[in-house]
Amino acid sequence: MFPRVIKKRIFTILFIAIVALLFWYSATLHNTLIDAASALKGYSENNPAAAIIIFIILAISSAMFSLFSSVPLIPIAVTIWGNTATFIILFWGWLIGGIAAYAIGRYAGYPLVKKILPEDKISYYRNRISPQSELAIIFLFRFVTPAEITGYLLGLMRYNLGKYALITFFSELPVAALATYLGEAFLLGRAVIFWGLGVFIIILLFFLSYLFHKKKIDDR
Asked: In the chain, which residues have pLDDT < 50?
């Protein structure tokens, strides 16, 4: 189910893998990363509050707009704040962004959402679920589709806010943890952990997509 989404996710993972190889085995690129991390760490030490706010804004933006992504900055964030703090900042940024996308969809409505998302995407995903879908289906849908699409779409459908917040909380939790550990593995050159997590994520995406498809069929 959702072949376009799965292909896009796999392409993204492969792209990250290629970038990782380039940084690991290119002294120039590796030194560039270290220099960038050092510069941003110096800025963070002089402006701790501003650095955290900037990273939170990027995390919020990445949960609302596909154009933005906070993922490339995760390895640098790990060098500045460590695993735990990076995870917390990333998780709450994504959670706030998801709630904001839902609010825009629910209260601003279709005229504004169609300026953010292509109309064909809105109609494509809108045909896959309904506000009456059971919680498990919506939860799986949230996992197998991009975060911003789920937020705007369920907001447009006026899906129950409490359920949406619960789904978003428990879906972003493991994703933020995996992203943080991937960032650390990338930074430290831990190939086994990095590739192991990458393969695990691909398998998990296919499995969740299969569960969503099966659940939809069983409910008909």
From this structure: 1
